[in-house]
Design goal:
The chain has two domains: about 5-110 and about 250-310, Periplasmic binding protein-like II (D-Maltodextrin-Binding Protein, domain 2, 3-Layer(aba) Sandwich); about 110-245, D-Maltodextrin-Binding Protein, domain 2 (3-Layer(aba) Sandwich). Helices cover about 40% and strands about 20% of the residues. The protein has twelve helices and ten strands. The protein has helices at about 5-15, 40-55, 65-75, 85-95, 145-155, 175-180, 195-200, 210-220, 260-270, 270-280, 285-295, 300-310; strands at about 25-30, 55-60, 80-85, 105-120, 135-140, 165-170, 185-190, 205, 225-230, 240-250. Strands 1, 2, 3, 4, 5, 6, 7, 8, 9 and 10 form a ten-stranded mixed sheet that branches. Helix 2 (about 40-55) links the parallel strand 1 (about 25-30) and strand 2. Helix 6 packs parallel to helix 7.
Length: about 300
């Protein structure tokens, strides 16, 4: 039996039996991102955990082009919930370059410490060493790619002019490009991120940010935060890496019923331990982090009800 099957059985037996037989099933469409990226991996496993934890819910995860598309799909009511990277969420809430979008926070899922990965024998040791070089930034509609734009701006660099930008059709296209030497570095974020795992397993190395760079970026864009990727977070990573990033969220369409949001928050909390066994980054998917990372005015009322019950 596959490890996931065993975990599913544990969750269903331990938790699912508490749901009354014959309870009405609520089907919810979850927008993730392109194949080979962290959102697809997280969304697929989160859907399985939610469904196993609360059989009255049926979450169907579907691939999309990523955060920017997900915002539009949610605003139009074409999906019920979606994964959105923190910078994209910030722009949507604040109306940066668009009308503000009234989406609601279901959960803060994990922090996204942004950094570069290069081949182990790369001569590059800092961001400055990558200037003028071909860089795989990710897909055009990815929130991680958008975050890179803000971070480079904080360093007085232009993501698209001071580097040779390579934008991908899907996140999974990045590792082969850096390992073959076609690009000097691959940009990404997170702990347990699939693209980083593939490059590090092949002997890669990370390039993060200096204290001075962190100070400059966060002073210019205060929604970006200093983050640290602990040593041993990836195979072959012997030292901690100083990164810059944001939290990513599960957001919902504006009119998602309170009952659905409440059930999602409760199921994620109840199944969080199981999800974290499959995805280490899911250790951060907690009600406490949702409370701390999200602006209260954007938290879904149904989720807020659950947080109130927990005394948060």
């Amino acid at each position: 039996m596959k490890p996931w099957s065993i975990l599913s059985c544990v969750v269903i037996c331990a938790i699912g039996l508490n749901v009354p037989a014959g309870a009405d099933e609520m089907t919810l469409r979850l927008a993730t991102a392109t194949k080979g990226g962290g959102f697809e991996l997280y969304g697929s496993n989160a859907a399985k955990v939610i469904n196993a934890t609360d059989p009255s819910l049926k979450v169907l995860d579907e691939n999309t082009k990523g955060s920017l598309e997900n915002i539009g799909l949610l605003a139009q009511g074409k999906f019920d919930i979606g994964l959105v990277q923190g910078v994209a969420a910030y722009e949507a809430f604040e109306g940066v370059g668009q009308e503000p979008v009234d989406l609601k926070v279901i959960a803060a899922i994990y922090s996204s410490p942004g950094m570069f990965v290069v081949k182990g024998d790369s001569p590059a040791m800092s961001v400055k060493d990558l200037v003028g070089k071909p860089i795989a930034w990710g897909t055009k509609t990815s929130g991680l790619t958008l975050m890179a734009d803000y971070i480079m701006d904080g360093l007085d660099l232009d993501r698209d002019k001071d580097f040779e930008p390579r934008f991908l059709k899907k996140a999974g296209d990045g590792p082969p490009l850096v390992l073959s030497g076609e690009v000097a570095a691959f940009w990404g974020a997170g702990i347990g991120w699939p693209g980083f795992k593939r490059v590090m397993k092949a002997g890669g190395r990370f390039i993060g940010f200096s204290p001075e760079e962190v100070k400059a970026v966060t002073a210019k864009h205060d929604f970006l935060k200093p983050m640290t990727v602990p040593a041993k977070s990836y195979e072959g990573q012997d030292e901690a890496v100083q990164a810059i990033g944001v939290w990513s969220f599960i957001l919902s369409r504006p009119d998602l019923p309170n009952d659905a949001a409440y059930k999602l928050a409760k199921a994620l909390h109840a199944g969080q331990g199981t999800l974290a066994e499959v995805l280490p980054q899911a250790k951060e998917t907690t009600p406490q982090n949702t409370k701390a990372a999200a602006n209260p005015k954007h938290i879904h009322p149904g989720v807020q009800k659950y947080l109130d019950e927990l005394g948060l």
